[in-house]
Write a structure and sequence with these properties.
Blueprint: E1 9-10, E2 16-18, H1 20-32, H2 35-41, H3 46-60, E3 65-68, E4 76-79, H4 81-108
Antiparallel strand pairs: 1-2, 3-4
Length: about 120
């Protein structure tokens, strides 16, 4: 038996705007310098990636990506300082909740047993 914990953030209208998918996408942009390349690496369409970023930015009320437009090989994207701080805080929250949930799970089900 295993525990599965998913941490998602929701806005005032109870719409999801942040979870593992957007976190992986933002880390991909940080690593690859491109929203398109990050989406490709996650096997996600660019349009879906763009929508996720726009939804996140709308919920936060500020940009998380700084985009440079240009033709082939000249464009790119990077996390804004606010975007980087938000992602780091989300990842810290995710890690802390998972660690706490793991401890509670072990206490409730020693050895992963039901009885």
């Amino acid at each position: 038996m295993r525990l599965r914990v998913k941490i998602g953030l929701r806005d005032a209208a109870d719409d999801s705007f942040m979870g593992l998918g957007p976190a992986w996408l933002l880390r991909g942009v940080e690593k690859l310098g491109s929203l398109s390349a990050a989406a490709r690496e996650l096997d996600m369409s660019y349009s879906k990636a763009h929508k996720l970023v726009k939804k996140l930015e709308a919920a936060l009320g500020r940009p998380v990506l700084a985009v440079t437009r240009g033709g082939a090989g000249r464009g790119g994207a990077e996390l804004t300082p606010e975007g980087r701080r938000f992602l780091e805080r989300y990842e810290a929250l995710d890690a802390a909740v998972r660690a706490a949930a793991g401890k509670l799970f072990k206490r409730a089900f020693p050895g992963g047993r039901l009885t």
